[in-house]
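Quick review question:
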């Protein structure tokens, strides 16, 4: 496992512990709990759709120093270039809402910044491969984390 992915795993664990503590110590209104759960379920569905779409591809882990061997443009990849990171961001956002604490914004924003950084790193690496032109055309028709409209 790349060093960056190991570090990311440790950060995820630390943020998860913080979120568990926040959920444990604060009272949350039922509506925000339900909204948080809906977002977490949506993140789960997007995550599994990304797995199904990328099963045959050789994808790298976050912050892998290697260069990509392939990219996927089917399934949720038709709409966003980084559906795994989007699913993680939705998950953390749902958890932040469900915890109903101002302190939950910190891990959410931090994790979002990590995922955006990882995605940008991957996109820079595509420019250094033989797939650069194809990937540029793919970028033109899909959104980074949000689908392109129009």
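Suggested answer, residue by residue:
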């Amino acid at each position: 496992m790349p060093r960056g992915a190991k570090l990311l795993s440790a950060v995820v664990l630390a943020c998860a512990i913080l979120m568990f503590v926040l959920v444990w110590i604060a009272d949350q209104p039922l509506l925000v709990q339900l909204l948080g759960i809906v977002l977490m379920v949506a993140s789960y569905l997007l995550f599994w759709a990304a797995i199904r779409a990328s099963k045959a591809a050789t994808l790298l882990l976050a912050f892998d120093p290697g260069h990509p061997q392939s990219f996927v443009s089917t399934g949720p990849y038709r709409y966003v270039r980084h559906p795994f990171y989007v699913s993680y961001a939705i998950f953390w956002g749902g958890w932040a809402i469900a915890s109903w604490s101002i302190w939950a914004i910190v891990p959410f924003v931090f994790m979002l910044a990590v995922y955006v950084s990882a995605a940008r790193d991957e996109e820079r690496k595509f420019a250094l491969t033989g797939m650069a032109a194809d990937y540029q055309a793919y970028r033109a028709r899909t959104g980074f984390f949000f689908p392109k409209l129009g």
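Why it works: DSSP finds five helices and no strands in the chain. Residues 3-141 form one domain.
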